[in-house]
Design brief:
- The protein is mainly beta.
- It is 13% helix and 45% strand.
- A five-stranded mixed β-barrel has the order 1-3-4-6-5.
- A hairpin with a 5-residue loop joins β3 and β4.
- The longest helix is centred in the middle third of the chain and has 10 residues.
- The protein is extended, with a radius of gyration of 24 Å.
- The model has no long low-confidence stretch (mean pLDDT 85).
Length: 142
């Protein structure tokens, strides 16, 4: 069985290309935090290359950008090729069968806006400012 499920964030904008047969392919890298911390308290992150094809690739190229949170379901694939010097190279990638866009549009819009400092001078309500509310027994649902 070869099944991978990941949740992470894109490290840069996706790269879209078309094959000689005009099939869309989209590549991007997802940063995924490991579920445990090291002895010094820091968390390790894996940077995993993801490839998707056809309509999925077009949707990813259109809607994803650096920082977008995604859920990936797919498989691991290792391929080889010979580089210019004739050296055999190995590439391990995640082939995405499903890509879920987990960032909301408001997340993306907020990321695109310049940083605006929060107003801290506004007084927050305190418990002693609360007033009792009259509720009759008829208003209760039980």
């Amino acid at each position: 069985m070869n099944k991978v499920i990941l949740i992470g964030n894109l490290t840069k904008d996706p790269e879209q290309q078309y094959t000689a047969n005009n099939i869309c392919v989209c590549r991007f890298t997802v940063a995924v935090n490991r579920s445990y911390s090291s002895s010094d308290g820091s968390r390790q992150t894996d940077f995993l290359p993801v490839v998707c094809w056809r309509n999925q690739a077009e949707n990813c190229a259109k809607h994803l950008k650096k920082g977008s949170k995604v859920g990936i379901c797919g498989s691991v694939q290792t391929r080889t090729y010979d580089d210019r010097d004739g050296v055999k190279r190995y590439v391990t990638e995640i082939i995405a069968d499903e890509v879920q866009f987990l960032s909301t549009r408001s997340d993306d819009e907020r990321d695109a806006l310049p940083d605006i400092p929060e107003v801290t001078s506004q007084r927050k309500p305190r418990m002693e400012d609360a007033r009792p509310v009259e509720v009759s027994d008829d208003d209760l649902p039980f």
